Amino acid sequence: DVKVTQSSRYLVKRTGEKVFLECVQDMDHENMFWYRQDPGLGLRLIYFSYDVKMKEKGDIPEGYSVSREKKERFSLILESASTNQTSMYLCASSFASQNTFGSGTRLTVV
Amino acid sequence: GQQLNQSPQSMFIQEGEDVSMNCTSSSIFNTWLWYKQDPGEGPVLLIALYKAGELTSNGRLTAQFGTTRKDSFLNISASIPSDVGIYFCAGQLNSGGYQKVTFGTGTKLQVIP
Fold this sequence. Notes:
heterodimer; A: mainly beta; 7-stranded mixed beta sheet; 3-stranded antiparallel beta sheet; 0% helix; B: mainly beta
């Protein structure tokens, strides 16, 4: 089974901090994604990557950046965390049409 | 970005009852997917649909790809307590050479034993 591992389940950060969310997958998938999940809004795509060093903006990229230096690792960066970035963040990797998700990181910005 | 309209937003049902939920879009998709998210976990794929009109089952779950390609339905028969969770639909379409996936807003299901 594909495993997608997110480094932290819970994070609390202060406004203005730079925050790194890490995601690693172990099945050699080329495609990786970062979503945020908010009540009533479902999952919204922040950024995605189809290859090493490649990144594309999703639907809500503002305030975020990403890094993909190795195929198995896709990092989400909040350059200067704000309270409206308090959310559940989900990483996924995929083969064909089927995403496999990590367990999520619940980020609280205070 | 586009969001799919998923309904109902939440539902409380008695154990043993059947459940229906649906997803609609203003755009067509060439693949529909249904995921379930257990509390504290990431979503897990339940059913994938690839053709308009397709009806697919996975145990007590049945999903259909609408004939207009703009909607999909998920039914759960004889619900049990472990069906509790959030169910997401997702539509997929080729866009700019890659597969773009759009998720619904989710249906939160609670089952009363």
